[in-house]
Design brief:
Strand content: 15-25%
Strand order of the largest sheet: 9-8-7-6-10-11-12
CATH class of one domain: Alpha Beta
Structural class: alpha/beta
Bound molecules: NADPH dihydro-nicotinamide-adenine-dinucleotide phosphate
Number of strands: 12
Shape: globular
Helix content: 40-55%
CATH superfamily of one domain: NAD(P)-binding Rossmann-like Domain
Number of helices: 17
Distance between the termini: 31 Å
CATH architecture of one domain: 3-Layer(aba) Sandwich
Order of helices and strands: HHHHEEEHEHEHHEHEEHHEEHEHEHHHH
């Protein structure tokens, strides 16, 4: 990791002491504080007002029991979380993650990142995140529904369209959002469309929300490539994951003329030199909910499945890498391999997918590197557009919504680019994103008094 300013070191030390055993949260705070030395040198009042300490402490953390009954009639217990991180700019906003690895430290890291990401969109939304250690894999529809209903039986009292507005994340897509929203509506006796985003079109969703994170990352990388006078056209691309973010990244990259030759899930990756067949991938993943090996089997000759442990997806030579699965999935070693094989740009679709060592390798090599909190902000930005449509009881066309998304991503790119220049680090999108996001939240908090 890079070092942080000596004035900020005590803040990090205190965060680590107070949040023991939460390495992902420490990593996320460290990465932001690394960028803030230049800010406090210019604006020392942020230190006097303890704004940085306050931003590192969530406003509220809710942890609760989720009992539910499986198909065999056995009682199962999971743990639910909602970390309401910062509401200086608007209602808490951020997705729900269902994955066995979920714990309070992971939700806190995601909520912290979300706060700055949401600020970067320029929309009136605060930061929050939630989830459960529930594993949706292999569960029946009925089990998923009973679990979602039990979760919402507790969580509903903490939500509201002006209070806290969840959405999807890993393991939470349209089906889960439907079950959670349905139970919320029942418990509150209110059709409060704006309390959830990522809803289906049939009951208040926005067109282009499903596609937004992947499309948005692609727009961001396209803008970055544009600063070097190039584009996706004709480039070889690797996208990790095969969930919501990955699938719509592949779709947009292909529409920009790029060729995606590999994608993955937690069981391994597929290499398809002819270019990923997106219809087949959607069929395998979204309809049949199968493992990625099934894609290679059905695609036939030319496509190969490489199981976990027999190689990394980042060994596949490419010009653009778009990690879109999960945190810390791309190590320093992977980054060195990518640089060696000629990568010129990296756009993070997932949250914090590159380890600190990997980020350093990319930056030292002068690779265009887009951090997740800027590059994957298109999802939450379109969620804010969904809230706008719900508030005005309106429904926009796909084209209109995607156009807004494209403009927002261009603005986020330009803001990060300009901020990096202003603070003496041209081309450093990590610094630009961290500073621009921080300043917007900190300024609002300063005006709101000691809160
Ligand atoms: P999905 O659940 O739709 O897909 C996740 C994908 O990543 C799956 O292919 C999954 O494989 C793989 N994956 C998950 N965990 C691991 C792991 N530990 N090791 C290897 N592969 C893994 O989630 P999303 O596409 O929604 O989210 C992906 C990332 O993007 C996350 O970091 C999320 O926080 C971030 N993000 C999502 C947004 C959204 O709008 N959905 C918005 C902004 C960021 P498998 O099925 O085998 O588990």
């Amino acid at each position: 990791m890079n070092s942080i300013d000596e004035k900020l070191q005590p803040i990090l030390t205190e965060v680590v002491r107070r949040n023991a055993g939460e390495p992902e949260f420490h990593q996320a705070v460290h990465e932001v504080l690394e960028s803030l030395g230049r800010v406090v040198a210019k604006h020392p009042h942020y230190l006097d007002l303890a704004l940085i300490e306050r931003i590192c402490e969530p406003e509220r953390q809710i942890i609760f029991r989720i009992p539910w009954v499986d198909d065999q009639g056995r009682v199962q217990i999971n743990r639910g979380f909602r970390v309401q991180f910062n509401s200086a700019l608007g209602p808490y906003k951020g997705g729900m993650r269902f994955h066995p690895s979920v714990n309070v430290g992971i939700i806190k890291f995601l909520g912290f990142e979300q706060t700055f990401k949401n600020a970067l969109t320029g929309m009136p939304i605060g930061g929050g995140k939630g989830g459960s250690d529930f594993d949706p894999k292999g569960k029946s529809d009925g089990e998923i529904m009973r679990f979602c209903q039990s979760l919402m039986t507790e969580l509903h009292r903490h939500l509201g369209d002006q209070t806290d507005v969840p959405a999807g994340d890993i393991g939470v897509g349209g089906r889960e959002i439907g079950y959670m929203f349905g139970q919320y509506k029942r418990l509150n006796n209110r059709f409060e469309a704006g309390v959830f985003t990522g809803k289906a079109l049939a009951y208040g969703g926005s067109r282009a929300r499903t596609e937004a994170t992947g499309y948005g990352n692609t727009y961001f990388v396209q803008a970055m490539l544009g600063t070097k006078g190039t584009s996706f056209d004709g480039k070889t691309v690797v996208v990790s994951g095969s969930g919501n973010v990955a699938i719509y990244t592949i779709e947009k990259v292909q529409s920009f003329g790029g060729k995606v030759i590999a994608c993955s899930d937690s069981s391994g990756y597929v290499l398809d030199e002819a270019g990923i067949d997106l219809d087949l991938l959607k069929e395998v993943k979204n309809v049949r909910r199968e493992r990625i090996a099934e894609y290679a089997r059905r695609r036939g000759a030319g496509a190969h499945f490489i199981p976990v442990g027999q190689g990394s997806i980042w060994d596949v030579p490419c010009q653009v890498a778009m990690p879109s699965a999960t945190q810390n999935e791309l190590s320093g070693k992977d980054a060195a391999q990518l640089v060696k094989s000629g990568v010129i740009a990296v756009g993070e679709g997932a949250n914090m997918p590159s380890t600190p060592e990997a980020v350093k390798v990319f930056q030292d090599a002068g690779i265009l590197f887009a951090p997740g909190k800027a590059a994957n902000a298109g999802g939450v930005a379109t969620s804010a557009l969904e809230m706008q449509q719900n508030a005005s009881r309106d429904s926009w066309t796909f084209e209109q919504t995607e156009k807004r998304l494209a403009t927002i991503m261009r603005n986020i790119h330009d803001t990060c680019h300009a901020t990096a220049e202003e603070y003496g680090a041209p081309g450093n999108y990590v610094l630009g994103a961290n500073i621009a996001g921080f300043v917007r939240v900190a300024e609002a908090m300063r005006m709101l008094g000691v809160i």
